[in-house]
Amino acid sequence: MVHQHFMLVERFTVAENIALGQTGRGWQDNSRTLHQRLKTLSAHYGLGIDPAAPVWQLSIGERQRVEILKALDRQVDVLILDEPTAVLTPQETAGLMTILRELAVQGTAIIFISHKLNEVLALCDRITVLRDGQRVGSVPVADCDAHHLTELMVGREVNLDRLDRAAVEVIACSPLLSLEQVSAVGHHRLPVLRNINLQIYPGEIVGIAGVDGNGQQELEEAIIGLRSLTHGQIHRNGTLAHIPSDRYSMGLISEFSVTENLLLRDIDRPPFSHKGVLRPAQMVKQAIALVQQYLIRTPSVHTPSAILSGGNAQKVIIARELCRNHPIILAAQPTRGLDVGAMEYVHAQLMAQRDAGAAILLISTELDEILRLCDRIAVLYEGQIVGLLNAATADVNHLGLLMAGKTQVTDAPQTSTQIYDFFEKSQILRP
Fold it and tell me: pLDDT tens digits for 195-220?
């Protein structure tokens, strides 16, 4: 199995990680034999992995390829991949799909777990849809499309095309959020943010695109004040709403009720408290109103947040952060792990705030989400902004190259709808 979260020992080399736990060969091979075998295997599948490299020195995409190489070296009969493209560039995604189809042709049974519909349609032979932990249907790929899949997943038609919006006039207004030469270091005292300059204006959504692990979390922490800057300044002209990248560790107190989580920011203010004493009736009244307004599915407002589904837990955070109409919104990975129905809802809420004049910084590793919502796109690579593009005219292939730290545009296959079209036309995947 290739897990969604890497199962690697960072201080070990690639070869040591792959040999770890193997019997019959692996540790019993001498170093030269092991390295040569892995080099040959890596070259055959176009993975480009150095067996002698320490894992901690590898990029996120390279670590994903190590996990895949580990599975290939074991010559498995059944391969399970859980969200394997979440940390890959568009070009790396296309390469992975080619590898998987080759393995399938050779007789490997592959289970591909993903919420990216176009990738599932491009790769798979059969698709099984789960909703609320239950199987709602299995269909051959030849008999379905993205619209059919979304209806199975959500129970209704969902539109995730790029949303129309008026252009933003930034000449006559000042930015609400401004980052000037922002730099910071990470846990190993190594630079993780390098001289970031970015301005977000009223009535626009600026997206931070990039492969996960290139400074997105550190940028989020710096903006909300959880990470000190080594250089630069962050200016906010107004209050900030924060939709965190990890809803459970940063957004909710799991043991608290829905009511308590909805009112975390206002717990010390009238009418929810008086002279330091909470007023439960007023709290419950406000919580019920927010549950109805934001379509939160919960047994009651007294239910502990820990038992909510991921989508409804996210709605609790969104309701709390957006109901006060903050002029600045930081939304970090706002739809991570959500189904397409919940994703559509979150997108609609962000667009409503944008149209009301909020300045929104959207940090997301989902390129489709960035292209759908944003007015401008800043590409983050190794803690630096390597490109700033108009989202309406952005080229997906160019974005993918920037996400990989490259600047020239090539004709490599794309992601999202373009990946599907590319594979269909070239017939690389499905016979």
Answer: 999 999 999 999 999 987 789 989 99
Phi, psi of 6 (to 5 degrees): -60, 140
Q: What is the pLDDT of residue 248?
A: 84
| Inter-residue contact 37 to 74 (CB < 8 Å) | no
- Distance from C-alpha of 252 to C-alpha of 254, rounded to nearest angstrom: 6
Per-residue pLDDT at 279 exceeds 60: yes
Q: What is the pTM of this model?
A: 0.74
Q: Which helix (H) or strand (E) holds 327?
A: none
Output the six-digit token pair for 108: 């490997």
C-alpha pair distances (Å), 279 with each of 33, 183, 273, 299: 71, 44, 5, 22
The answer, yes or no, to whether residue 420 has pLDDT greater than 50, is no
101 is in which domain, residue-wise?
A: 14-154
Beta strands in 186-291 (DSSP E): 191-200, 204-209, 231-236, 240-243, 273-274, 277-278
Shared domain for 360 and 383, answered yes or no, is: yes
Residues 353 and 220 placed together within one structural domain of the fold: yes
> Using CA atoms, how far apart are residues 259 and 262, in angstroms rounded to an integer?
5
Do 134 and 37 belong together in one domain?
yes
Interval 171-191 mean pLDDT:
86
- The answer as to whether 179 is a domain residue is yes
